[in-house]
Amino acid sequence: MEYEEVYEKITSILDGEDDWIAAMATVTCELHNAFEHYHWTGFYRTTSPGVLKIGPYQGGHGCLYIPFDKGICGAAARTGETQDVPNVHERAEHIACSSSTNSEIVVPIKDSNGQVVAVLDVDSDDFNAFSKQDIDLLERICTWLGTVYH
Ligand code: SME
Asked: Quick one: which of 5, 61, 135, 142 could link to 109 by a disulfide (CB 3.0–4.6 Å)?
């Protein structure tokens, strides 16, 4: 599916939806099924200061908790910046929940005060799986999700 089409589909399905969990569940489903290189697609939410908790997600097993000082997800939450990792084996802090993962991208979601309320994590078994188009799409979706959060 084309990237723009995926963005339009997601925002149109969720038009007027203000339930944060329903929105995240729909985003994971639509992204995961739209792209063959998305092998694990999901969210980690800030459920207490400095701690991310899993869900919703699609794919295999994921760690239940990730502290802000651990993992690529933690780096995205801590810095507030997208983490594009073409080869996870070159990032010492990467948490390997699946031995088949070779690259990943993690995008933070911020509320209206700029606080990171969740991160969107996409893992791929391919090396260097994510293009600028992937980054742009995921960042647009996360910016949009930040406006749904309450
Ligand atoms: N990508 C993660 C961990 C993998 S998940 O639990 C699916 C990280 O290093 O942050």
From this structure: 142
Q: Beta partners for 116?
A: 110
User: CA 71 to CA 74: how far, in whole Å?
Assistant: 5
Per-residue pLDDT reduced to its tens digit, 112-122: 999 999 999 99
Q: How far apart are CA 54 and CA 47, in angstroms?
A: 9
Report the amino acid identity of residue 92: A
Q: Is the CB of 62 under 6 A from ligand 1?
A: yes
- For the full predicted model, state whether its pTM sits above 0.90: yes
56: preceding bond cis by omega (within 30 degrees): yes
Which has the closest alpha carbon to 85: 100, 104, 98, 70? 104
Ligand 1, atom 6, residue with closest C-alpha: 62
The protein residue with its alpha carbon nearest to ligand 1, atom 3, reads: 95
